[in-house]
Amino acid sequence: MTANILDDLFESQAVVDHLAGQSYAVALRATTRSPESDGPSSNLNLLTRWGQVLVRSRYASRVLRALLWRLGDQITPAPTVPGQLLVRATPAKVGGRMVLLQPGLHILADRLQPLLAQRGVALADTTYCYVDLTTRELVIPEVSIPHNASVLKDVDVNVTSRAELPPVVPGRYKLDSWGVAHRSDLSVTRFTPAEAAAATVSFVHGIDDPVACLRLLGRLFGDIDGFGLWYDSEETYVDALVTALSLH
C-alpha cells in the first residue's frame, strides 16, 4: 500500500540507480482500520532516515509532505527571495500565530510532540522557511519538486487525538517570536533586540554581509519577541516554552 501511494505521489517517475544507497524510508498505516491496526503504534505513519525517525504522525499527508520538503532541500536548494530572510529553524504553530524554534527538534519529537500538542503547539516539518521583513510574516514554502498534490488531499483518514494537532501546511502566518537554545541559570531568558539578533544570525542563510544581517534582525526584533530556552529534558523544554509564550 505504501509503495502504491508513493507511486501515485511521484506519478511513477522512477529512477533506476543501482549505486544509490538508502536515503529515506516511509511506512504508512492502512487507510482503513483492521484488527491488525488497533494497537497505538500501528496508528502512526513514519518517515525515517538512516534508522532515525524524522516524522512520526497519525497523518499520512504530513509524512509525505515532510518527505517532499526534504527531497526538495537536497535536489533544489531553497532560493533567496528579495525582502525575505531564509532561515533554518523549526516553525511552531500556536493557535493563529507562529513562533520559530531551534532546528533539529525532530530528534526529540517522540516525546516532545504529544507534550506540545497538549499545550496547543504544533511543530512544522520543513527544514527552511522565510521571514517576510515587510509584513513580519513567517512563510512556510510550498513543496518545490514535482508531485501529485491530490495524493496529499486524499490519503488521510479521520484523526482524533490529544497527542497530535493537525499538520502545519505551507502558507503565510503572523510571526510572533523566535526562540533559541541558550545556556543560562534561568529556563527562559528575555532578549533585547540586539541580543536576539546576535543569537539568531547564524540561522540566516543567503546573506553574505553579517553586519547587514544583524541590522535586519535588529529591526525585526523591534516588532517580535526573542528569547532563549534552557532545559534538561523534553518536559522542562515544554515548561520553558509555555512560560516564554505565556501559554496556560
> Helical content, roughly?
25-40%
Total domain units: 1
Report the uncertain regions: 32-41
| Mean of residue pLDDT values | 90
Straight-line distance between termini: 41 Å
Portion of residues in beta strands equals 25-35%
Number of strands: 13
Radius of gyration: 19 Å
In terms of quaternary structure, the protein is single chain
User: Given the structure, what is the number of helices?
Assistant: 7
Shape: globular
Q: Helices and strands: which structural class?
A: alpha+beta
Any descriptors?
10-stranded mixed beta sheet; 248 residues; 3-stranded antiparallel beta sheet; alpha+beta
Can you describe this structure?
By secondary structure, the protein is of the alpha+beta class. It has one domain. The protein is built from seven helices and 13 strands. Strand 5 (90-94) and strand 6 form a beta hairpin. Helix 3 runs parallel beside helix 7 and helix 5 crosses helix 6. The N and C termini lie far apart (41 Å).
